[in-house]
Amino acid sequence: MTPSNTPRPPRARAVVFDLYGTLLDVTRAVDPARAVLGARADRLGELWRRKQLELSWLRSLMRAHRDFAAITEDALGWAMATVGVEDAALARALRDAFERLPAFPDAAATLDALRAAGLHLAVLSNGTPAMLETSLATAGLRDRFDLVLSVEPAGIFKPAPEVYRLATAALERPAAEIAFVSANAWDAHGAAWNGFLAIRVDRTGQPEDPLPGAPAHRIASLAELPRILGA
């Protein structure tokens, strides 16, 4: 119980979501490869996602920005070469699948509950504006968001502070009044480090990253958000 003489933290007035891996299931991006690669499809998916993130971080450090659509394609080429696959048609199918990922089963109902409680909802993602619009529309989630924010105006990727400031500027609220939800541990830590009420979605029971900024909550599914946020 919070002592009566201790100020309570501001109640969240808005909720910002990461997209890939948080609302949309990135593991499904390799579905077109399953008939071709069999058991190697999962390995391809792991390598693709890992390299996609690595390239975003390295380019941010190098100040050599390249948008997320291009990085996603670069990472896919590297992953396919690593598993020994050369198939242009499959590469096209995989790129298309990444932009048309399904939402997690609890995403729509959670977003509806938060909206019904009067919370403003936004997406803040590494994806390009075109990627985000396509992905959200395909997943049936676009009309649930007031704002869809890409990192592109900042010219750098999460977890750079410049990216999180896009959300506070667009929502016209201080970070302390904004809940930030991500299934990527490094992203949740980045948001917490920049003053947001960070909530990490941990679906697989991974250990916490040894990074600055501690998420305020750690949940196993999106369905827990309305309770945490008082919706």
Structure description:
The protein is of the alpha/beta class. It folds into two domains: 14-24 and 101-228, Rossmann fold (3-Layer(aba) Sandwich), CATH 3.40.50; 27-98, Putative phosphatase, domain 2 (DNA polymerase, domain 1), CATH 1.10.150. 43% of the residues lie in helices and 12% in strands. It has nine helices and six strands, in the order βαααααβαβαβαββα. The chain has a six-stranded parallel sheet with strand order 3-2-1-4-5-6, sandwiched between helices. β4, α8 (185-193) and β5 form a beta-alpha-beta unit. α2 (40-62) packs across α3. Residues 1-9 have low confidence and may be disordered.
Helix and strand topology:
Elements (H helix, E strand, L loop, with lengths): L13 E4 L16 H4 L2 H23 L5 H16 L4 H11 L8 H10 L3 E6 L3 H11 L7 E4 L10 H11 L6 E5 L2 H9 L3 E5 L15 E3 L5 H4 L3
Parallel strand pairs: 1-2, 1-4, 2-3, 4-5, 5-6
Give the CA-CA distance, first to last residue. Answer: 20 Å
Helix percentage: 40-55%
Low-pLDDT runs: 1-9
CATH-derived topology of the largest domain: Rossmann fold
The second-level CATH architecture of the largest domain is 3-Layer(aba) Sandwich
Number of distinct helices: 9
Q: Kindly report the spatial arrangement of strands forming the biggest sheet.
A: 3-2-1-4-5-6
How many individual domains? Answer: 2
Oligomer: single chain
Mean pLDDT comes to 94
Morphology: globular
What descriptors fit this protein?
disordered N terminus; DNA polymerase, domain 1; 12% strand; 231 residues; Rossmann fold; globular; six-stranded parallel beta sheet; alpha/beta
